[in-house]
Design goal:
The complex is a heterodimer of chains A (80) and B (358).
Chain A lengths: L3 H12 L20 H15 L5 H6 L3 H7 L9
Chain B lengths: L3 H4 L7 H22 L1 H9 L14 E2 L2 H4 L12 E4 L10 E4 L1 H19 L4 E5 L14 H10 L2 E6 L9 H10 L5 E6 H15 L8 E6 L3 H4 L5 H12 L3 E6 L9 E3 L5 E2 L4 E6 L13 E7 L9 E14 L7 E9 L8 H10 L1
Parallel strand pairs in B: 1-13, 4-5, 4-6, 6-7, 7-8
Antiparallel strand pairs in B: 2-3, 8-9, 9-10, 11-12, 12-13, 13-14
The chains are: A mainly alpha (80), B alpha/beta (358).
């Protein structure tokens, strides 16, 4: 099990958003900061932090924080 | 639920079966847009009712309509983004209205096409452009948008040119060293790949081995035609200078994002499962037989938020029959000839115009 704060920190660092973001509603293009450029930064950050390689299909599917938390399970990253 | 046209392996459906699958879907889209878009409805009302038996009987819109009119089939509060075309200086740009559903479909469709030749894993990616092309998102050029659209298919994005279009040899060497022996993706615009990558590698005598790479390129041949470089010269040249053999050109437009035609090993552009092409005779506008040059019409099942499902482009092309599913590259074999020449009065013809007017 991984601490969810690691995931939140990756989002905060790559999207340049506040740590007290409403995580459950955070979605791709739902806020100005999470655009297509930031999305690629986020993917690179997640790959770095969790030492995984995310497949093309999941890059496209990962369109919200909630989905990201779930998708990472596929790569063996489960959150408590 | 995704349509089977997206989930089945791309370029795998025999032409006859594909047309049977496309016809009801495109027919439904005609009705959907007729109901949802007043501008489109007015255009259809002005057309005579055809017999409507095949794909070539579906009403088509000239792409220029998206320059002169904002055509959308969704309420304003569902607009997710509006894409604009490059457009040469002084020309009007196309405006294409997307909702979340259509934008999502486009992304999935493009991924389905690209993963056919790249595989599901994102490859280390060399971009034949300068890093500044995607730096300032407010001043994005069409080139920047094109690069950005491809980034999700790669990782460790490495830009190989500097702002003066000179090869960053250090970056290239570090990339080659780190990913030596692994498959990598190279992406760039056709003209830039030739002029600033291939020609510069030759001129500077750089030792570049990309024999394990896949090159994806797009953007048209116009600038290279001026230098008499066609697809065959392009492929042979890059193999000489870099060892690249897996080369795929693609043909697409902002009015039908996602439905890109991809070059197969036969050197022709193939429409993916959810797209098709018809060549029209520029005099009669009837469907031209295989082998005859005409105006390219593109069909796609993706556009739901704007009526871009059947479009007459401003490009000339030829269909050379259909590919065989056995090769993995079914569907029509398209060759794009170039832009339709514009009727412009200049040079010698000015004299003639002057003489007629006086």
């Amino acid at each position: 099990m991984t601490d969810e704060s690691t995931l939140r920190k990756a989002f905060v660092d790559s999207l340049d958003i506040a740590p007290d973001t409403d995580w459950e509603s955070l979605s791709y293009r739902g806020i100005e900061e999470w655009d297509s450029v930031a999305h690629m930064r986020l993917i690179a950050e997640l790959e770095d932090v969790f030492d995984i390689m995310i497949e093309t299909e999941d890059v496209i599917d990962m369109n919200s924080y909630v989905v990201a938390r779930k998708l990472l399970g596929k790569y063996g990253i489960d959150f408590a | 639920m995704l349509d089977e046209l997206l989930t089945r392996p791309q370029f795998s459906i025999p032409q006859e079966e594909k047309e049977a699958l496309l016809l009801p879907r495109l027919g439904e889209l005609v009705e959907h847009h007729r109901d949802a878009c007043a501008g489109y409805r007015r255009i259809l009302d002005a057309l005579p009712d055809g017999p409507g038996r095949g794909l070539s009987d579906l009403p088509y819109l000239p792409v220029s309509m998206f320059k002169s009119h904002l055509l959308q089939s969704i309420p304003d509060d569902e607009v997710f983004k509006v894409m604009t075309s490059s457009g040469t200086t002084g020309q009007a740009v196309s405006r294409v209205v997307l909702d979340r559903t259509t934008a999502d479909l486009q992304a999935r469709a493009l991924a389905a096409v690209m993963t056919t030749v790249l595989g599901p894993r994102r490859l280390p990616m060399l971009i034949v452009d300068t890093p500044n092309v995607v730096r300032d998102r407010r001043t994005f050029s069409a080139r920047g948008a094109g690069v950005l659209g491809m980034l999700s298919f790669g990782r460790h994005h490495t830009y190989v040119l500097d702002d003066d279009m000179a090869i960053d040899v250090g970056a290239l060497e570090r990339f080659a060293e780190r990913f030596s022996g692994q498959p990598v993706l190279v992406f760039g615009f056709t003209f830039m790949v030739w002029k600033y990558f291939h020609q510069q590698i030759q001129r500077r005598g750089l030792d570049v081995d990309l024999s394990g790479a896949v090159l994806i390129h797009s953007g048209g041949w116009k600038k290279l035609q001026d230098e008499a470089v066609g697809n065959a010269e392009f492929r042979a040249g890059l193999e000489r200078s870099t060892g690249l053999r897996r080369i795929h050109n693609f043909y697409g437009m902002v009015e039908q994002v996602g439905g890109v035609f991809l070059e197969g090993p036969d050197g022709y552009l193939h429409p993916p499962n959810f797209s098709d092409v018809i060549i029209r005779d520029p005099v009669t506008w009837a469907e031209a037989p295989d082998g005859q040059v005409g105006v390219i019409e593109v069909l796609s099942t993706l556009p739901r938020s704007y009526p871009g499902h059947v479009l007459l482009t401003e490009d000339l092309g030829v269909v050379h029959g259909a590919g065989s599913p056995v090769t993995g590259w079914a569907g029509k074999k398209l060759e794009v000839i170039g832009r339709i020449p514009r009727a412009e009065l200049r040079g010698c013809s000015d004299t003639h115009a002057y003489a007629s007017a006086s």
